[in-house]
Amino acid sequence: MEQRFDLTKVTPEGYKAMLGVHAYVGGCGLDHGLLELVKIRVSQINGCAFCLAMHVPLAQKHGVSDMQLHLLTAWREAPVFDARQRAALAWAEALTQLPGGDVPDEVYALAAAQFSTKEIADLSFAIAEINAWNRLMVCSRTPAQVG
Amino acid sequence: MSQRFDYNHLSAAGLKGFGQVHAYLSQASLSQALVDLVYLRVSQINGCAFCIDMHSRDLLNQGMAVEKLLLVGVWREAGGLFDTREQAALAWAESVSEVARTTVPEADYAAVRAVFSEQEVSDLTVAVALMNAYNRLGVSARNIPAAAQA
């Protein structure tokens, strides 16, 4: 599979601006393991190999277990995620898939039971950010770093 | 329906980050009119009322006829109302927005590259990715469109 275009060369200022959002999310105070779980789940939905190859090792680095990684695609039926992780994953899927163009009240209620309003806002930024990266990397066919 | 959370205040620095992507695009290779057209179409796909309101107003303020604005959602059936560049940009915006379903295949890339340079396609992709991000914030927070705030 050949790369179509290299964002870092063709759109360097745009790329750099996206890194600014990335820096915000990394420093917002949300647990890094939780953020990585969310980024992996979204990247699975959007089919972005580049992002999966990057975030799986990062998740492991931040304490996400192998079993959690194996079962992430079926997290609803898996016993290895706590209530906070489940609420975050439900929020991530709803923001990514936007069922009926909406993020349902039940999903918001789940998130609000586990996270402060600021945490929900920051989590939403993380989900918006990874959705953006997935599109950029899939479109450009940037090769996953699997070396 | 009321706003759930005000991310403008809660995550101000994060929004500023996306704002820099937005600022980049206003100086990049594509006309503002084309970028705004793409912003509107993406917002329609994702169902973000706040963004649809904002970008419809932007297009009207730039001089787009209301008859054309009304047909953005069905541009494929609008005869010659949308020119070649607009049609190519709208098709790419749709393919990229629905990446989980489309995987943005070679045929779609070939179609957009037939009309736009590599630089333009990269900038167009950043615009689509950015609006997909903004829409998710707006929909999840239940942002109230300007029209409903008066």
**Poorly predicted ranges of chain B (pLDDT <50, ≥5 residues)?**
none
Structural class designation of chain B: mainly alpha
Looking at the overall shape, the CATH architecture of chain A is Up-down Bundle
Structural class, from helix and strand content of chain A? mainly alpha
The dominant shape of chain A is globular
Task: Please report which band the strand proportion of chain B falls in: under 5%, 5-15%, 15-25%, 25-35%, 35-45% or over 45%.
Answer: under 5%
Individual helix count of chain A: 8
Morphology of chain B? globular
Taking the alpha carbons of the first and last residues of chain B, their distance comes to 15 Å
As a whole number of angstroms, the C-alpha radius of gyration of chain B is: 15 Å
CATH class of chain A: Mainly Alpha
Question: Would you kindly provide a written description of the structure presented here, covering whatever features stand out?
Answer:
- The complex is a heterodimer of chains A (147) and B (150).
- In chain A, 70% of the residues lie in helices and 0% in strands.
- Chain A is built from 8 helices and no strands.
- In chain A, helix 3 (32-46) runs antiparallel to helix 4 and helix 3 (32-46) packs parallel to helix 6.
- By secondary structure, chain B is mostly helical.
- In chain B, 67% of the residues lie in helices and 0% in strands.
- Chain B has one domain (9-148): AhpD-like, CATH 1.20.1290.
- Chain B has 9 helices and no strands.
- Chains A and B meet through helix 2, helix 6 and helix 8 of A and helix 2 and helix 9 of B.
